[in-house]
Design a protein that fits this description.
Length: 363
């Protein structure tokens, strides 16, 4: 079987930077939002249905978590002191950006802010429930994985058989429960699902706080990276599986939509077996990518290598646009995505050139 070369530039995987680019574009598109598809029923134009199909696969946070697992677990050397500093830096960055987002949102909206409101909004930013939540709940989940990463890395590098057992166990508890929930959601239109509800509740009690989806996606990235040659030998198979998974998830969502009379919320896919399949297929798709010196390739790699700054900044530009402009048509929403991405990227690059501020966009 032909081998697929994995391009690496100065210890970076070009394909991973491409996947980070795709993921950050999804983040911006979700928050603008680019795609409009909600209808009173299940009837709609082909264009609306196409937007819905695209929304199903847009689950960028799991992609970012898997990328972190891929890169961090593959490292051959581990410095505990450096990792402790990095984890502490992530916690500090969370509170700094939470504060920046809260203050920015209130100023843009022309609203006042008491000390109590400031503290409440900052803490709400952490779990994603606040009015100005931004995207920082992602950092909290990642930090929870960082706290036990030293154990994960040592097991991954020195006793992969035990790591694989751990991954299989999490997969059963996470993917298994997801499949039960998908089944429950489909059956409850026709029968009493109380017994299935209780079974799902029982299974979830076996999961630790860090043994849920973030841990699963992180370890999935590590599993992909463990034997890349073997993984890419099956590249066409993974791409086919991803396409089939995409089709099945759409058929499933259409069934739910027809049963309830309104379009199913596509966010159901965030914690489903389908997203795990999407992750594997996307890795297979992008890993062989070879960057070059063409302007478009350099721009793509530039954005892909600076996604953290764009991630934490982009909501501010979205708020500014929402406060001053009314965006309706798809073309206007697409232009908004381009402007927000470009502005966030340029501000990130500017901040990286300024002492102290560069640390705010470089975790």
């Amino acid at each position: 079987m032909n081998e697929v070369e994995i391009p690496v530039t100065k210890k970076r995987y070009d394909g991973i930077d491409l996947l980070k680019l795709i993921s950050i574009l999804m983040v911006v598109a979700l928050h603008v939002p680019l795609l409009h598809f909600y209808l009173d029923g299940t009837e709609g134009s082909i264009f609306r249905r196409t937007q819905y199909i695209m929304r199903i696969v847009m689950q960028p946070v799991p992609y970012f978590v898997a990328i972190n697992g891929f890169l961090m677990l593959k490292k051959k050397k581990f410095d505990l002191d450096a990792h402790i500093r990095k984890t502490g830096n992530m916690i500090l960055l969370f509170f700094i950006w939470a504060s920046i987002l809260v203050v920015s949102a209130r100023l843009i909206a022309g609203e006042g802010l008491t000390l109590k409101q400031f503290l409440v909004y900052v803490f709400e930013t952490g779990d994603g429930t606040g009015n100005y939540a931004g995207v920082l709940w992602f950092m909290i989940g990642l930090i929870s994985v960082y706290l036990i990463f030293p154990l994960l890395w040592r097991t991954y590098q020195e006793d992969f058989r035990s790591f694989r057992f751990f991954f299989i166990s999490i997969s059963v508890l996470v993917i298994g429960v997801s499949c039960l929930e998908l089944l429950r959601n489909a059956l409850h239109f026709h029968m009493d699902t109380e017994v299935l509800d209780q079974l799902i509740g029982l299974c979830k009690r076996f999961r630790t706080e860090t043994g849920g989806w973030f841990m699963f996606y992180f370890c999935l990235g590590g599993m992909i990276g463990h034997d890349l040659d073997r993984f890419l030998e099956r590249r066409k198979l993974w791409l086919l599986v991803g396409l089939i998974g995409w089709m099945i998830s759409y058929v499933y969502s259409m069934y739910i939509s027809m049963q309830q009379g309104t379009m199913a919320d596509p966010s159901f896919n965030y914690e489903s077996v389908f997203t795990a399949v999407f992750i594997v297929s996307l890795f297979a798709l992008v890993l062989p990518y070879q960057a070059n010196d063409k302007p478009i390739s350099r721009l793509m790699m530039g954005i892909g290598r600076n996604t953290f700054g764009i991630f934490v900044i982009h909501k501010i530009f979205i708020w500014m646009i929402e406060q001053n402009f009314r965006v309706f048509s798809f073309g206007e929403r697409l232009l908004t995505c381009v402007v927000v991405t470009a502005a966030s990227y340029l501000l990130t690059m500017l901040m990286k050139k300024i002492p102290f501020l560069n640390k705010l966009v470089t975790p």
